[in-house]
Amino acid sequence: MSAEPFTARNHELPILIQNLTKRFGDFTAVDNVSFNVQSGEVFGWLGPNGAGKTTTIRMLLGLIKPTSGNAFVLGFDSATQTKLVHANVGYMSQQFTLYSDLTAMQNIRFYGGVHGLSSDELRQRIAEIIRTAGLEGRENTLTGSLSGGWKQRLALGCAIVHHPKVVFLDEPTAGVDPISRRQFWELIYQMAKEGVTVLVTTHYMDEAELCQRVGFITGGKLVALDSVSQLKQTQMRGQVLEIGASDPEKAMRILKAAQLNGRIPFDEVALYGAQIHAVMPDAQKYKEAIQRLLMGEDVQVSSIERVAPTLEDVFISSVKAPAAIV
Ligand SMILES: Nc1ncnc2c1ncn2[C@@H]1O[C@H](COP(=O)(O)OP(=O)(O)OP(=O)(O)O)[C@@H](O)[C@H]1O
Ligand SMILES: [Mg+2]
Fold this sequence. Notes:
The model is unreliable at about 1-10 (pLDDT under 50). A hairpin with a 2-residue loop joins strand 1 and strand 2 (about 25-35). The protein is built from 11 helices and 14 strands. The protein has 2 domains: about 5-230, P-loop containing nucleotide triphosphate hydrolases (Rossmann fold), CATH 3.40.50; about 240-310, 2-Layer Sandwich (Alpha-Beta Plaits). The chain has about 325 residues and is of the alpha/beta class. It has helices at about 55-60, 80-90, 105-115, 120-130, 150-160, 180-195, 205-210, 230-235, 250-260, 285-295, 310-320, and strands spanning about 15-25, 25-35, 40-45, 70-75, 75, 90, 165-170, 195-200, 215-220, 220-225, 240-245, 270, 275-280, 300-305. Adenosine-5'-triphosphate (ATP) binds near residues 29, 49, 51, 52 and 55. Magnesium ion (MG) binds near residues 53, 54, 94 and 170.
């Protein structure tokens, strides 16, 4: 590791972003984003496809330079102190590739070698990672033949082989079954308990609910930033009516038509599992009209009640009517 003085640090926060902007030609992928992440926090970095999540992470890692603004990791400027950043962070990229023709153990050894671990440290880390990833008995299995859940946990192990203080996980559980996803999140929380700061992106709202704070980015702009419970109280622009209907698809069509012709001022009508979530300014006022409308078209309404917004409701609301936080 370089002997860059500790005093070169500008801040002690694990992650600090100030007015960070990235343009590709005329296109602004990340637009004047500012936030910070506290020590030991599990921070969810959320947004639709193309929102600018990976671009933000790449700037935090110093892999690409910001057009303007700053990204600091553990006080190191990602753009100019990139080596120091790399020595102290773990990164599981969206296309994280383990070597499929190496065994689980060989992959850990390889990544440990990249980070300059001694052979004693390597031996110890291999044992620890195999144990925490639940890979006992599979040490010598070719990585290519491990199932998705094992691979993701091994990939996380490889990303943290050098005991980083800050870990960036870009959609680490994409395409993994719910049980493996839960096991993966147990590992995330285990790391956080040991003081590691985690920034994680996910499209799974159940995972986002597990984050201590979340930031929503859409079109490159930060549109919400808070704890999940706070966001549910402050970020929703309307009230949510949950509707149970005999034929949800038909009910959706009817309600969408009512939205289009302005009969009911829905902000949003969306399927939420087997139920429908309709967002509107005053749920109580339109409840009976909605019920009559559906019954009039032979759709039975088994339940209709105002519910607290889910994070998914908040997410959709923030993305549809963004108001940038600057
Ligand atoms: N090197 C590049 N050159 C040009 N445009 C780019 C480049 N990298 C990213 N973009 C664009 O910037 C926008 C943000 O991309 P980014 O990968 O950050 O999105 P994301 O939020 O990570 O999306 P996803 O959820 O799909 O991973 C996209 O429109 C993308 O096409
Ligand atoms: Mg991405």
